[in-house]
Design a protein that fits this description.
Strand content: 15-25%
Distance between the termini: 40 Å
Largest sheet: 5 strands, parallel
Shape: globular
Number of helices: 8
Length: 193
Amino acid sequence: MIRNLLLAVGLIVLIVTATPLAGWWAQALGGRWGDERGDILIVPGSDLTAPGVMGRGSYWRSVYAVLYWRGGHYRTLLLSGKDIAVPMSDFIVSMGVPRDAIVLENRSRDTHENALFTAQLLRNDPRGKVLLTSDYHMFRALRAFRKAGLEVSPIPFPDARKQANNPLERWSVFCSLVNETAKIGYYYLRGWI
């Protein structure tokens, strides 16, 4: 029994570390890209490493928001997330985006609330809306925003897929993907997606 358990664990570690499984999984959750043209770029926050300090996920979402802003498609950036929208905004402004082009939704504590509170802010705004988030997060986020009544076009950036290119990071990516898949199941059961 213990031998079989150890063999199973070893096989899982080998598959996760030595195959592109994590990258494929992240790509599947990211889905297809939508139309990146629009007037409003919506960027939900991710994590904090300390109060007022962006974590890795929020940093990369902010970086990609700046890159898309510089592409000239958007008039407004809407940053969503309690405690994280302001640090993201400060970083984005430091990268040259005008502060008056940024709208903050800073009440939401999770993806479900990101969608609900953003939908409240933009419900009567006829402009085109684009959702920018990490590849592994897009499946859940896109469906939550649409369930909240906000039609958005998805632009997932390669977050987990990039990390999965490094065999030393694949196990961490795999754990994040398992966690995200569990959240998708939870959101589905709650009727949030």
